Amino acid sequence: GAKWAYTGPHGENHWSMHYPFCGGSFQSPIDIQTQLLNFDPSLRPIELQNYNLSATEQLILGNNGHSVVLSLPRRMYISSLSQRYTAAQLHLHWGSSHLPSGSEHIINGHRFAAEIHLVHFNSDRYPNISMAADKSDGLAVLGVLIEIGEFNPVVDQFLKYIKGIKYRDQKVQVPGFNIRGLFPGRLDEYYRYDGSLTTPPCYPSVLWTVFKNPVTISLQQFRTLATAIYSSHQQELVPVPMNSNFRRAQYPDSRLVLCSFKR
Ligand SMILES: NS(=O)(=O)c1c(F)c(F)c(S(=O)(=O)CCO)c(N[C@H]2CCc3ccccc32)c1F
Ligand SMILES: [Zn+2]
Questions:
Q1: Which of 67, 74, 124, 244 has its CA 20 to 30 A from that of 162?
Q2: ipTM attached to this prediction
Q3: pTM assigned to the model
Q4: Protein residue with its CA nearest to atom 4 in ligand 1
């Protein structure tokens, strides 16, 4: 599709020119106002199957010009939703080394340093993610908020290879690791709402789950993430650093944000 960016003439306020859904309803991310949450006792703990990958498994870590993306094997899936949602990829959104504040979802107006998204598609109904991406029950994305603190050894399992994907369309192989380790301890405490892809084409096709508890990465890890990669190809004359790759909060409209926990 047409090129898009987070700033400049192709920035988010212009996305809807080429991608009409970006100007539509049910857009993500949102500012989660905790006083307006609705506790829903039917929201069960998230159950992840086959997330503990062996080191003999090789994953592809890539720079797609918008984020750092780790491919995930199809045997990984979420089993606690009404239909099976199979893993496709994970990617991150972050701020800049001067402003370590780049999560997409914000809580009561507070933006965290970064956010991990694990993208899954409804494999009960669609053969692959491309066929599922524009369907209302097509995608389920798990969001993990990241704040600066203790070094994160699990994030480092892929972050330590980031120097190999400095430029757009570069890829490297990464040994498998326990992807469950990227999540906070409690998979039973999360926010839930119906939303969209946070990048073009912004399809309103995502069942969002954002975990209440953030995880940490160290300031050094954050700086590596925020300074190591470029949105531009290696041969381009002007290198464009990739940072602050988050979309601003969208209008909640009449959407209810549910939570799986009380208080
Ligand atoms: N924040 S988010 O979770 O909404 C989200 C992204 F932020 C993001 F950057 C990507 S992308 O594929 O890297 C770039 C453009 O889609 C996807 N890609 C997904 C969505 C659709 C699709 C189709 C094939 C492969 C990956 C994806 C995404 F779901
Ligand atoms: Zn994302």
A1: 74
A2: 0.96
A3: 0.98
A4: 197
